[in-house]
Amino acid sequence: MTPTRRARPAGTSVPRALFLLAILALVAACATPAGGPGGSGIALTGASQEPLDRLHQQAHDALARWADAVRKSGGASITFVGDLTGQIGDWEAAVGDNNKRALYAGMVEAPHGLPDDPPASDKVRWLDGSTVDVTVLSAAKTLAALIASATSTCDDCQPLEVTDAQQATGLVDTSRGPANTPIWVYSIAGTAVKVTHVAVDESVTVQPPPWNADDPPQGLAIDSATGSADSRKLTVTFVGAPGGADKPCGADYTAEAVESELAVVVIIHEHPNPTPGACSAVGAIRTAKVTLAEALGKRAVLEVQQGLPVAVTAP
C-alpha cells in the first residue's frame, strides 16, 4: 500500500495544531465524570492517585462485578464467604479418594427423591446478636444448589448417593463474620460422613473471572479483615514473607483501598529487602492497616485477585 500524503490546512502550523490538541485532551480529561461501578465514586486511600495500571484495573473491575452482583440479588444483606458446601467427619480410606473428588465435581444424586416443600422461614444469626429473616430452601433445591456449585469434573468418579436429609443450623462464614445459618445435612450411602450445604439463597454472590494459570492476576489476596462499621480503620491479614524488609528475603507491606459505595478492595503493596539471594517459599501470616475515605458501614471487603469477599470481624 502506498502512503497517502495529507495536505495541512493553510494558516495552521504544526506546533499550533499540537498545542490545540493538548488543550482539547486536557479539557476532556477534566470533564470526565469521576465515578465507579453503579454510579459510586471511587477513592484511592493510603497512596496518591495512580495511573490505572493492571492492579488498580483489577480493583475497579472487582467493584464493577460487585455492583452487578448486588443489583442481581435485589439488594440482599447477606454475603457468604467461601464454599457453601461442607462435610461432617472424614472420608474413610476405602472411599475417600472417590467421594472427595465426586463431591467437588457436584456428583451427588438422590435416586429416591427428596422433599421439595420449603420448611418454615428462619433467621441468619450473627455472633453479635444481629439477625436477618430468610426463606429456607427445600432439601431438593438445596441439593440442586450444591450440584450447581461444582468446581471441577471427575469422569471416573462414582456419584454419591443421598439416603436421607435433615434440616439443621451450622456456623457459616459471612462478610460480617461467622453466623448461624440454616443448612441441610445429607447422609451418604457407604460412609459415615455427612455432606452439608447452606439452605438459603438470599445472598450476594459474585462470579470471579476465569483464572488463567499462564497469566494470573496480580497482587496479594487478603484472607480476612478486622474493623467496625463506624470506623475508617481496617486491619487486613494475608500471607507474606516471614521477616521484615530489614532481613534477607524479608519484606514490609502497606495497604491501599479502592472504594465504592458498596465495597472496598484492598491492595497490598510489597516492599522487599533489595539484597539478592536464594529465598524459601515459606510464608507467614502478616497484617497491614489501611484508612478508608469513609467509615466501612455495611460495605463488603474484597480481595484484589478475584474480587471475592472476605470475612470482616469486629476488633
Topology:
Blueprint: H1 14-31, E1 43-45, H2 54-73, E2 85-88, H3 96-104, E3 108-109, E4 122-126, E5 131-134, H4 139-148, E6 160-174, E7 177-188, E8 194-198, E9 224-226, E10 233-240, E11 251-259, E12 263-272, E13 284-291, E14 300-303, E15 311-313
Parallel strand pairs: 3-6, 9-15, 12-14
Antiparallel strand pairs: 1-11, 2-8, 4-5, 4-7, 6-7, 7-8, 9-10, 10-13, 11-12
Q: How many separate structural domains?
A: 2
Number of helices: 4
Uncertain runs with pLDDT below 50, 5 residues or more? 1-48
**Total E-strand runs:** 15
Radius of gyration equals 25 Å
What best-fitting shape do the alpha-carbon axes yield?
Answer: globular
Order of helices and strands: HEHEHEEEHEEEEEEEEEE
Query: Taking all residues together, what is the mean pLDDT?
Result: 86
Largest sheet composition? 7 strands, mixed
Task: Walk me through what this model shows.
- There is one protein chain.
- With 315 residues, the protein is α+β, with helices and mostly antiparallel strands.
- The protein folds into 2 domains: 37-75 and 211-313, no CATH class; 85-198, no CATH class.
- It is built from 4 helices and 15 strands.
- It has helices at 14-31, 54-73, 96-104, 139-148, and strands at 43-45, 85-88, 108-109, 122-126, 131-134, 160-174, 177-188, 194-198, 224-226, 233-240, 251-259, 263-272, 284-291, 300-303, 311-313.
- Strands 2, 3, 4, 5, 6, 7 and 8 form a 7-stranded mixed beta sheet that branches. Strands 1-11-12-14 form a 4-stranded mixed beta sheet, covered by helices on one side.
- Strand 6 (160-174) and strand 7 form a beta hairpin.
- The longest helix has 20 residues, at 54-73.
- The N and C termini lie far apart (68 Å).
- Mean pLDDT is 86; it is low at 1-48.
